[in-house]
Amino acid sequence: MVELDIQIPSAYDPFAEAIDSDAPGTKENIHIRIQQRNGKKSLTTVQGLKKEYSYERILKDLKKDFCCNGNVVQDKELGKIIQLQGDQRKKVSQFLVQSGLAKKDQIKIHGF
């Protein structure tokens, strides 16, 4: 019988290199979402900021710049989440990029 030199590929994870590397934008994304409340009312949530940042300080600057109210919520699974009144998705993403807290490719905007 003829022996063939064929190698069967093992399980390969194409994202393993991206997860292991320390390149910015590969590990953590910042998710900006909108949640509908009553009627026209809505909430904007910001999740995924680095833990070493002062969430209260960021919230204070966001509230001052956007003239809205907000708070920081502690979640068991997701960690700290910033909530803002109204639809502030585009403004928050611009603020994070301009202040140097995140790069544009790290930010994911969700919602309708």
UniProtKB/TrEMBL annotation:
<dbReference type="Pfam" id="PF01253">
    <property type="entry name" value="SUI1"/>
</dbReference>
<dbReference type="GO" id="GO:0006417">
    <property type="term" value="P:regulation of translation"/>
</dbReference>
<dbReference type="InterPro" id="IPR036877">
    <property type="entry name" value="SUI1_dom_sf"/>
</dbReference>
<comment type="function">
    <text>Probably involved in translation.</text>
</comment>
<comment type="similarity">
    <text>Belongs to the SUI1 family.</text>
</comment>
<keyword id="KW-0648">Protein biosynthesis</keyword>
<dbReference type="InterPro" id="IPR005874">
    <property type="entry name" value="SUI1_euk"/>
</dbReference>
<dbReference type="GO" id="GO:0003743">
    <property type="term" value="F:translation initiation factor activity"/>
</dbReference>
<feature type="domain" description="SUI1">
    <location>
        <begin position="30"/>
        <end position="100"/>
    </location>
</feature>
<dbReference type="GO" id="GO:0003729">
    <property type="term" value="F:mRNA binding"/>
</dbReference>
<dbReference type="InterPro" id="IPR001950">
    <property type="entry name" value="SUI1"/>
</dbReference>
<keyword id="KW-0810">Translation regulation</keyword>
<protein>
    <recommendedName>
        <fullName>SUI1 domain-containing protein</fullName>
    </recommendedName>
</protein>
